[in-house]
């Protein structure tokens, strides 16, 4: 039986590196941001590669849900679904989520917002995905890992995550070959340069975030969501 892991992250996190980590397992296939086309179609946002994304994925959330909960092609031991939490728009039904095993990748809002400000000047709370992560967690539960813990001690934190998911830890999760992979989303040329150049998780950087002054209220608004999840993270 395939264990379907839905990993919910926000932007400007280590979500693609985590996808690489799970994709390095011999028993795992990955699905890269399957709700992205629906998100673009419904919001009308003009992201890089928009037309290619709309052509590459279903734009109806019902079709995505059916694919993610139906028979997994090849019947792998694990299907790792990399989800951006902000892609789970309010109009999307929630019942199908009960067929998945959920996990949560969080990052301190100060670091998220500082990074996000470099690519989009005025993000909103919904853009960051914290409310959506907490909604899913409160309904379905699942293990929580903090990006800082992953980077500080990848082997230990991934071992804890695997135990919580009911799958064995595989040392192959710690390293991978550089370059693109066939299961990368069609948006990879725009966003995955750092991961394509990597062979493992980046070194841990304990430096404090330097949040732009005009975005500090956003960081304050996001912090209660983050802290509720962080208090329950695997350590």
UniProtKB/TrEMBL annotation:
The keyword Transferase applies. GO terms for molecular function: transaminase activity. Keywords: Aminotransferase, Transferase. One of its GO terms (biological process) is carboxylic acid metabolic process. It comes from the Bacteria. InterPro entries: Class-IV_PLP-Dep_Aminotrnsfr, P-loop_NTPase. The keyword Metal-binding does not apply. Pfam families: Sulfotransfer_5. Belongs to the class-IV pyridoxal-phosphate-dependent aminotransferase family. PANTHER family: AMINO-ACID AMINOTRANSFERASE, AMINODEOXYCHORISMATE LYASE. This is Branched-chain amino acid aminotransferase. It comes from Actinoplanes utahensis.
